[in-house]
Design brief:
D-amino Acid Aminotransferase, Chain A, domain 1; alpha+beta; D-amino Acid Aminotransferase, Chain A, domain 2
Length: about 260
């Protein structure tokens, strides 16, 4: 059955089945572009301007001049959410050197608990800090996870330090403090990561942004992943307890409700 949803492509709202970019688009040919994936709660996008700030930083890093401003992109996303009658779902903005594409699709979200391995794939520190369209290292790492019968994989940088999971940031809890890789180790500067660090401060939980090896995960009391779509998810492979993670999950849900109501 054809989709009744619309997409935005280069200045026009089109039915999804008619939405297309050129076969010569450099995003299609080479992955030359950046994207943002945002969660929609009851028809409202959570922190879109923070996502667009990161999008524009990534585009600047790879030398792409965006056609639309952050405020224009927010208006486009709002219009698309209304056209597609989205309640809960996902809004995605993809900007290449040649195109701007925005989609909005419904999705149900259930709480997640993850299992994970440490991938053999290494990330490039220069590129990993931006959400570029070239996701091959993360795809390969996720295939390793699937082959191992787990949900996800932790990627390391060329120094052997923990960076992130394939689609989320990672936190470890030890002795009542939160640890997460510093931005200098090239994790994506996640919108949810930033929110969790701020919430930890409000809860008077120490936060340490410092490098650590995968062996550190083995000694952690709790490990959890953060992303806009799954919010905060325990990584049970390395979690011996479950004390602080539920507190942060509740605080994050309260934050979303407070900002969107």
């Amino acid at each position: 059955m054809p989709s009744s949803n619309y997409a935005f492509v280069n200045g026009r709202f089109l039915p999804e089945e008619r939405a297309a970019v050129s076969i010569f688009d450099r995003g299609f040919l080479y992955g030359e572009g950046c994207f943002e994936t945002m969660r929609v709660y009851a028809g409202r996008i959570f922190r879109p301007l923070e996502h667009f700030d990161r999008l524009f930083e990534g585009l600047h890093a790879i030398g792409i001049e965006p056609v639309f401003s952050p405020e224009e992109l927010r208006a486009i996303c709002r219009s698309l959410v209304q056209r597609n009658n989205l309640g809960d779902g996902v809004a995605r903005v993809y900007v290449t050197r040649d195109s701007t594409v925005v989609t909005g699709q419904p999705r149900a979200f259930a709480p997640r608990r993850l299992t994970a391995i440490v991938s053999t794939v290494r990330v490039n520190e220069q590129l990993a800090r931006n959400k570029t369209a070239n996701r091959l290292p993360y795809i390969l790492a996720h295939r390793e996870a699937e082959a191992a019968g787990v949900d996800d994989a932790v990627l390391l940088n060329t120094m052997g330090n923990v960076v992130e999971l394939t689609t989320s940031n990672v936190f470890a809890v030890k002795d009542g403090a939160l640890f997460t890789p510093p931005l200098s180790d090239a994790p994506l500067p996640g919108v949810t990561r930033r929110a969790v660090i701020a919430l930890a401060g409000e809860l008077r939980l120490p936060v340490c942004e410092q490098s650590f090896s995968p062996e550190f995960l083995e000694t952690a009391d709790e490990v959890f992943a953060t992303s806009s779509l799954m919010e905060i998810a325990p990584v049970t492979t390395w979690s011996r307890r479950n004390d602080l993670t539920p507190r942060l999950q509740e605080a994050y849900r309260d934050l979303v409700r407070a900002e969107l109501t």
